[in-house]
Amino acid sequence: MDKIIKTFKGFDKNLCCRGMQYEIGKSYEEPNAEVCNKGFHACERPLDVFKNAKITSVSLSMSDHGCLTSNICLEGAGWACCYGGYCLGHGYLGAKKFDGSSKGVVSLMRIMDTVGVEKWEDLKDKFIRVATKNWGDTIKIIGNIIKDKWFDYESFFKEEENG
Questions:
Q1: Which of 32, 50, 71, 113 has the fewest CB atoms in 10 Å of its CB?
Q2: Residue 122 belongs to what domain range?
Q3: How many domains are there within the chain?
Q4: How far is CA 55 from CA 49, 104, 140, 159, in A?
Q5: Minimal CA–CA distance to 22: which of 30, 7, 12?
């Protein structure tokens, strides 16, 4: 008999995740499951998706093909990565025209507010919480180390687009 593993699954208020509709009390199988590539994403301990991290560096740069981006480099227990990379504006050294959006500026301000600093450069050496969508995924959201205050680039820009 196959081993049964009980896990916790995250989904939206309609019991939907990544286009899959779930029903309470129903079991699901993926005959061609492949770890971290194909199958149902879940975790044995729900808090595994939350981790503590230290901000090791921050950058605001237009060196990425003339796209203004922000990056926050993080270090946790045995892992490190950068959060950000969204295009906040366009321009390059010597350009005659620069453009950006207020939502790009607001995203930077929301990050500072979430972490609890008034200056971008003060983000360095602060501790935060991070959450991923699934085990092994990139960082989805960042949060204040103490307060229940979170920021999610993807959701922020979707909300801004939708009005």
A1: 32
A2: 48-161
A3: 1
A4: 18, 20, 15, 26
A5: 12
Q: What is the CATH number of the domain that holds 58?
A: 2.40.50
91-123 exposure pattern, b = at least 16 Cβ within 10 A, e = fewer? eeeeeeeeeeeeebeebeebbbebbeeeebeeb
**What is the rounded distance in angstroms from the CA atom of residue 46 to the CA atom of residue 62?**
38
Q: Is residue 104 part of a domain?
A: yes
Q: What is the pLDDT of residue 139?
A: 86
The answer as to whether 8 is a domain residue is no
> What count of other Cβ atoms lies within 10 Å of the Cβ of residue 37?
7
Q: What is the mean pLDDT of residues 50-57?
A: 92
86: in domain: yes
* DSSP characters over 6-53: --B----TTSEETTEE--TT-----TT-BTTTBS---BSSGGGGEEEE
Per-residue pLDDT at 5 exceeds 60: yes
